[in-house]
Fold:
Amino acid sequence: MTLRRLGAILSAVVLVAAVSVPLALASRSGAPESESQSTSQDQASPATAADILTQADLGRLLFFDKRLSGNNATSCSSCHLPDKAWTDGEALSTGYTSVEYFRNTPTLLNASKMPLLDWDGRFEGSDMATVVRDHIAEAHFMNLDGRLLVERMLQVPVYAESFERLFGSEASYGKVLNSIAAFLGTLESTDNPYIDFKAGDDAALTATEQAGLTLFEGKAGCSACHGGDLLSDGGLNVTGVPANPAIFSEPDRHITFRRFFKQFAVGNFADLRADPGRFALTHDEADRGSFRTPSLLEVARTAPYMHNGIFTTLEDVVRFYDAGGGDVPNKDERLLPLNLTDVEIRDLVAFLQRLGSDEPPFSAPEPSDLPPYELRTLGAN
Amino acid sequence: MPDRFNAVAILLIGGAAALIVASVVATVLIVASNDPSPVRTPVVERPVQSIRERVTPEQILALGFGVLPQVVMPPDNPATAEKIELGKILFFDPRMSANSAISCASCHQPDQGWGDGIALNFGYPGTPHWRNSQTILNSVFHPKLFWAGESLGLEKQAKSAWTGATAQNLDPVLAEERLLQMPGYVTRFNDVFGPGAPSFDNALRAVAAFESTIVSQNPPFDRYIDGDQSAVSDAALRGFELFSGQAGCSACHSGPLYTDQKFHALGVKDPVAFVEDPLRQITFYYQNRKRGVSEDDYRAAEGDLGLFYVTKLDDDRYKFRTPTLREVGQTGPYMHNGAFNTLQELVEFYNAGGGGVVNKSPLISPLGLDAGEVTDLVAFLESLTGDPLIVEQPELPKYEVLN
Structure:
């Protein structure tokens, strides 16, 4: 544990005490805590039920609401930041308070369209509600009991009314998941210069970028896996990406790593010093180190790269493939040294830079936009 | 003058004693006629002159009270010095909570009588607790723990606290991997439980072993029973006489632990926080859901249903466990929701005949104690309180890089 972390924990303890004790005192003295809370939020005009027209509208607010985590400290947007193309910009994710994760935060743009999700492909884009459930419930992410989640929803009248109106019945765990899934379905990025170029707009890409595209589809062979509308084959491949030593040199990450693979019944999980990837699900040696092929749409905004964020720049990634990938026995046979020149690497990177839209398509609500807790009438719940 | 004054005083005391004895006998007769519970009072053949002659160690023992028995651990968890030490370290380790910020000692503070000194425990961030934190002192002697007896022993209580959403909220496998990341723990687990990675179940055993050592430290009333006449005041002894007589306390607070280990409805009011604090409401409704009450009961829930959550029997609504009175002087606020801040308030509550509630115990009715008697009763309760048992936080093992 670093001193910084210890400091953070101590502050958390002080905060708990500082918040809880006055709360308890305020309750005893008869001053409703909700009044002071809603006073500050009234000035900032939180969303009302009238602002929530669709399940996706509701899901959008929930996505940014920290009350969806066990200790009210983490929202979906803590790791999926809109201004970082719905990633966190870190090599390895952080997680719940005092937890560090061992994989890179993938973008949510186009996630609903992907056949497989998460780096080991254990989720499906067609079932985003299950992805959301995993992340809310997991001890290393948001760590929230589903029954507690429902009570928190019912304690926010704007949410409670919206669930009733949009779903026809009272808020439930499943409705929370479906609302957020509906919002995630709106996170798309399909408009970029590459698509314009393919559609016939020759001016959409520069000569350098066009040279990069030629390499992408030809000599460099990228499109063998990164093809199609999403620039991904939707499957899993072994490329031999080197292990990220931080997972094992930072105790908080190593703890999370071991717990994860222990729960997937991976043998000798304590001895692992590389992420076994898909192997955890199949226990098939051929899948050791196999990871999902990510979409390259918006790739310029989603650094660092690979399942463990081991590469900081697109040039790092291209040079990795230029060298024929990593050194593992079950590596995909299509990965061979490419013998690209420095100019070709530059062209390829220039092309990859143009796979994104001009501006982030979504913005974030302010914390003050989130509707507050209010009181329920005991006996008439 | 002094002689005459003494004579008058003796006469007055003697007269008062005779009155008390008469009222005790009358109470016994009345109670005995319709109550099968084992209320016993000193059977006094003749008026005696002194409270110290009326309340002797022998009589106290004859009424079923006494000093604490030997600690008996479960057969699968014998306590050893090494296990107790490991349990002590775990007890103080905040990494045994999901956010690494809350240890057992956060809610069971040695200098707060191993409770937390506030009415309703603060629980977990965002999910404040709905009940009062109970003392660890003497908890090893109780067959059932928690306010509604939800937990059958220290090991199970520790599991509920470490994993509960309103407590430490910790995933057991995460706990195991955190422990494995600290060689200082691994060595101790191996010494106590044999080779292998630290397991959550063994952590429960160790912390239970430590808690079994948190017992009363020489309270004055125990010393009096052991023959130390100077240990308690006359007021405390008069209080005991009321406790085991007119006030009827010992109908439930019986034996060396001053508890019948049963459950009773007293009509203690639910906390205003259930009405005025949205976070406590969330916890309150969550607890009702989690404990599996019917949909109707969940919708209509207005207060803590106590033992009903465990048995689902209507006759058990609003019943709570009789807590021990040992160490009661250092474990306020009192009752399952900390409704009373002082022992005086507590005694006044019973003196008024408790509150209004369905299933109210027939043992509770107005006592008619005067102010002096209330003071005496409080003095007795305080004499059940020994020296604070202060355990300093041990040095905690550190996370290390595992090669």
